[in-house]
Design brief:
Order of helices and strands: HHHHHHH
Structural class: mainly alpha
Protein name: NADH dehydrogenase [ubiquinone] iron-sulfur protein 5
Subunit structure: Mammalian complex I is composed of 45 different subunits. This is a component of the iron-sulfur (IP) fragment of the enzyme.
Organism: Spizaetus tyrannus
Main location: mitochondrion
Family: Belongs to the complex I NDUFS5 subunit family.
């Protein structure tokens, strides 16, 4: 604990802002990315900022992917581009339920 506890005196909580998933969650359940955040924090604990950036890069990347889903978005975009290319070439036809046509009801 620092000599002057500025966060408490100023009424701000930087740790809570940095560690979003560790905050109290509704119904007492852990956040979706809590495990990744915990691994990242445990990896960097006591190392110092410069060394932790170097040694905990994989944990940080996993945590950021869980939070922002950037790799997933790139993968989905690639799949959709490939599907559209196959549709233009005539190698793939979408099923009727993907075209907005409903099945006849009795």
């Amino acid at each position: 604990m620092p000599f002057w506890d500025l966060q408490r005196q100023l009424g701000i909580d930087v740790d809570r802002w940095l560690l979003r998933q560790s905050m109290p969650q509704p119904y007492g359940k852990a956040g979706a990315c809590h495990a990744f955040e915990r691994e990242w924090v445990e990896c960097g604990h006591g190392l110092g900022q410069t060394r932790a950036r170097r040694e905990c890069q994989l944990e940080y990347e996993d945590f950021m992917e869980c939070m922002h889903r950037t790799k997933l978005a790139v993968r989905l975009r690639t799949i959709l581009e490939q599907r559209n290319k196959m549709i233009k070439e005539g190698k793939y036809t979408m099923p009727d339920y993907h075209k907005g046509k409903e099945e006849p009801r009795p």
